[in-house]
Protein 1
Amino acid sequence: MKAYFTYFKLKFISSLQYRTAAWAGIATQFFFGFVYIMVYIAFYESGGENLPMSLSQVVTYLWLNQALLALVNQFSRDQELFKLIREGGISYELARPKNLYFMWYFKVIGQRLASVLLRFIPLVIVTSLLPYPFHFGGPASFSHFVLFFVSLGFGTLLVTALTVFYPIITLVTMNEKGIVNLVMTLADILSGIVVPIPFFPKFLQVISRVLPFQYISDLPFRLYVGNISVQDGVFGICIQAIWIVIFILLGNILMKRSLKRVVVQGG
Amino acid sequence: MKIYFESLAMHLKGELEYRVNFILSFLSQILVFFTYYFIILALFTKFDHIKGFTLYEVLLCFSIIQFGFSFNEVFARGVDRFDNLIIRGDFDRLLLRPRSIILQVLCSDSDFVKSSRLIQAIIVMIVALVHLHVEWNIWKVITLILMLFSSCVIFFGIFLAAAAYCFFTVQGLEVRNVFTDGGKHMAQYPIGVFQKGFVWFFTFIIPYAFVNYYPLLFFLGRKESILYAFSPLLVILFLIPCVLIFYWGMKRYASVGS
């Protein structure tokens, strides 16, 4: 266990080195947050009936989305793992007496946490000082807040389990674009990063309830703004746990399978 | 001009060498593009209109902006990915040749995978036009053509200004996206729907309003004056500072060496 944790720490510390990139990232995300919110404001000012969320809920949701983007989106993946596979570094990884799956798992989670920690705090501070309608609001209640933290933690474990699949698939396909990109784009839509799930057409809402993606970020964010009741939140967290177990088991099996056919590139 | 088309053909051949990769990337680009208008489709299931613009009117606006953007991604890729030229030091080579620099940059790269976006933008536009019941006349045809044209022009200008930015920073940082992708995202909706300050900014600084708002009003029959139909031509003025900035940056360019 300690060895895996060292991987986590290693990735974490080396990611923290890129501070200028983080500042540029904050500025960009801040701007994009504004752009997205402007669109919703224009829609809300035009009026509408039976809206699934209030404007301030949407705004807070969108800021959370921007602040935690590096943690929850599919595309913030670890380039290094793909490079290992493409250039043959995988042979060193295989020589190590540890479970490769968990080595990768902790690398990915370390990188995600590091890049989000740098961005999250400044963005939250600045946006909570903004006036209405751009204001980043507080949590709906104390219990919602606690559930938000728990489900965000579980969501992180879930998205990590999901993104470890991509290098595993690449072990077989040798190309990280193509299929992997298709899956990532679909996963981003269905996890509510493009549009919050409550704005989906009915049938898509039903579909995404059966799929794991909305449990990555949509569940914690909606818990924070109070769009989901406490009971439903607890229920959602249970589903998260089930998906995490399924994904980690599946990832391990797939990893074993593809390692049997792995081809080491280069020399 | 002939050089440009020859190099385009060359890049296309090059890309088609990796056929499977090309097809897969093409397909995934279709899906990526879908996420762009998925936002619009999803929001219009909950709202009837955005400041008086209906779904198909917004989709028309969206397709015109995406058309111009993708057009530049395919045909002016060299300007879009200008930082590549600078980082690799290849730009020095261009400076030695007795041809226009901008033409050479245009010839340096292209990306035909992105034509999947271009095609999809055209499809969305046709779908929107079919549903809109436009009363066609010669002026409206001209307006539509001018809108598409000005959309290509404005993004070329923005790409050029963003390229000039690489002369100073060497690497094209994320910040650059603020002007390209961020502006594009807003301009997918008729600029007039946003708050005053933004409308002002996107009329007089980056003139998106002349691409997708004033001519759109004429096209949809909300304004009668023919001036609105020809307002996209003003966008050409926007090119002047962009080209000047580019050449000004070039004068101050110091090679990265090697």
Protein 2
Amino acid sequence: MTRKDRMSGNQAAAEAIRQINPDVIAAFPITPSTEIPQYVSSFKADGLIDTEFIAVESEHSAMSACIGASAAGVRAMTATSSAGMALMYEMLYVAASDRLPIVLAAVNRALTGPININADHSDSMGARDAGLIQLYSENAQEAYDNLLMANRIAENPDVMLPIMVCQDGFITSHGIENIIIEDDAKVKDFIGEYRPEKYLLNPSESLAVGPYSVSPYVIEMKRAAHEAMKNARQAVADVSADFARVFGREYGFFEEYRMDDAEYAVLVMSSAAGTCKDAVDELRAAGIKAGLVKLRMFRPFPADELADALKGLKALAIMDRSDGFSGTGAPLNAEVRAALYGKADVKTAGYIYGLGGRDIKVDDFKDIFGELADLAAGKELPYCRYIGVRE
Amino acid sequence: MIEIRWHGRGGQGAKTAALLLADVGFSAGLFVQGFPEYGPERMGAPITAYNRLSKDEIRVHSNIYEPDMVVVVDETLLKTVDVAAGLKTGGKVLVNSSRDPAEVLAGFGALNGEVYAIDAVDIAVRTIGKPMPNSPLLSAAIRLSGIMGKDEAIAAMQGAFTEKFASKPEVVGGNMKAVSEAWSAVLKIN
């Protein structure tokens, strides 16, 4: 039965995994995603799932075990964060190149240097070029919903790529919030069976997965994965539409909040989007035409759709929860500006915020909207500013 | 929306109390948030935890800077932490203390709010058998928040404890005695 409940984002991710009942989970604990495999191993011990749980000795091995399982022809999942994800980086590229639809429940945490356990997006941004689909979640509900959609998106025969569902470490992973948990049978029916076209344990068709690729083949492999990533756009759209039909919650590539007649907008991902919505409402009440675009899908990047949604704005703030050290703006800033180039003439300001869990408040967003008005009025702003930094 | 900030020390149960308060608010049909501010885990170091309780959906994901209520789990924090920082005008501060009200009040500067005290450790020692103040403070905080009456609150806490202590049900009885006694032991001291 569908039930209203309250739980943390980690519990929500674990509930999704319980309902997906994947064939294999391979995981190694790391804060703040540790609870996800911990809950899942309890489900296993309690007989609620028949998943093979592989307790590995590192995240590199976790992803390697998922690759083996997925190549064999079954559903494989894992969860990780931060340095754990970094230890997986090598195998993330392998999973994508081998075209294996592994689902990774990511709980975003700062990458070490300086060591820190709190939220930022440096871990998943470091994997942005690996070839995984990336979805970002504002709250526990979205983390749960995105995970319920993840298998079908990844396993689409035109896609066959691993997928990462991200939520913010501690902020949503450890905060208790209201959530709707859908009926087990309805979820099972929505997700369906996984029947891969090709798999290693098929005795009637021999197959090699992940062999050495000589120069005459590498570009073709990457080109094919690129096409798969382009196809993921349609898969995300189709699965999201079906999800809305079955469960009633709608998801696009991004959410547009009060954007219809907006003059100033903030573009942000994950938990900070909720905080920004409160700022938008306060500014709207004061007669300022503020709006928000919350990016859900970072890979593939919905460049054309974003340019359409953002054109006509007087000014746009692009918010990164990681630094790229390029000297010209962090990852999201760079990609959004590239998307706008030649398509929409919008003044933009880049912001880096929330590194290592630094809090971002409603008032911070109101200040940012104030700066956007200055920008629209002709004031020069640097290419990138840091929210709350002590200089 | 009611916003509550908890000040305690690592190991005293402030985080657990905030999570239990979220459970209780949920059982009253409210939208809730319960979350601690995480960092390195150090027993005895000052920690902060937060609750939001609302009839409407809660979207904000920041810490709480202008609380309606502050709960001080460990009164020694009054010397080092400005626990009442940002307290809304007319807001409430609940202090766990066995001291004379005048001494407790001396720990605050000028306040635009009400100060309440409860000897939560004494209640906990007598009912639970351990100096764990969080259950009595949870009860007192619910009463001061005004989100529900006594009968509903007691039933909600029973439900929350039964779930929380599923693996050690023998502690539920003592905790229920603690919350029942604490409900009527809160005193306004200013």
